[in-house]
Amino acid sequence: MRSTAPAPVSLYGFLTPKPGHADELRKLLMDLVEPSRGHEGSLQYHLHEQEDGRFFLYEVWRSQEDLDRHNATPLLRTFMSALPEHLEGTPEAYFGTMRSPYSGGRHLT
């Protein structure tokens, strides 16, 4: 029997800091990690720093509704308003539905 639960959604991408802004962008991104992990429906939330100086953000949410709720928080709105000052160009962002079974420690339902 197939589950009728919504499939997890993922959001991932690269952010390139403006020259001289890596430290500020790193702090902004790091300040999102723990609060975001605590939001309802957060299954994975990881920040990586690439050797070329770009940041890679990887998020998995239980459902689109959970991601939408996260994106509507004051935390995210404040982050998004501060982001352009520190970014070189636009973020390289991707969004998708997770098709492989989720086997993480948190329950989907």
**Physical arrangement of strands within the biggest beta sheet:** 2-3-1-4
- Work out the number of β strands: 4
Per CATH, which architecture?
A: 2-Layer Sandwich
Mean pLDDT: 90
- Assembly status: single chain
CATH fold topology? Alpha-Beta Plaits
Shape: globular
H/E order of the elements? EHEEHHE
Structural class: alpha+beta
Kindly, what is the distance between the CA atoms of the first and last residues, rounded to a whole number of angstroms? Answer: 16 Å
Largest sheet: 4 strands, antiparallel
CA radius of gyration is 15 Å
How many domains make up the coordinates? Answer: 1
Poorly predicted runs of 5 or more residues = none
GO molecular function: monooxygenase activity
InterPro entries: ABM_dom, AI-2_Isomerase_LsrG, Dimeric_a/b-barrel
Organism: [Actinomadura] parvosata subsp. kistnae
Domain ABM: 9-95
